[in-house]
Amino acid sequence: MSLVVRKAEKHDLLKIQRLMARAGAQDTAIDEQVTKFLVVENDEKAIIGIAGIEKGKKNGLIRSFILDSPTWTAEMSIEFMDIVLAYAKERKIERIYACTKGKTPLFWQLGFRQIDKEEVPIDVSSLPHYQRTIGQNVAVWSYDLKSKIS
Fold this sequence. Notes:
Layout: E1 4-7, H1 13-23, E2 37-41, E3 47-55, E4 59-67, H2 74-90, E5 95-100, H3 105-109, E6 113-115, H4 122-125, H5 128-133, E7 139-144
Parallel strand pairs: 4-5
Antiparallel strand pairs: 1-2, 2-3, 3-4, 5-7, 6-7
């Protein structure tokens, strides 16, 4: 099976919304941010993974990191997250944050560190997705992209 990772386009919106609905994710503002997402397509051009990035002044927030495929592996998850991190670095983001529900070993395995909500900088804490998410019971993760080797 071959996978293609590409930037989302406006015509992908409905497919992304369906994937999010299947995953139980509720993100009402995706329509205005769809072109800031990366999508993963399988051989049949079905979208089986997504990740969005909201950018603050110098920091960013991963949003809606969703993988949906019976053939998805841990190795594929790591590869996709590496692509997401490279994309964030390409966008001149110095530190990336993520809010997750439950245990997420993927972030820990990739070198993210769990932080207190009080440690989140204002340029991330003021982002719309962070504001919608932080009221829920979530863990906050941080990763320094400046030290990531290109």
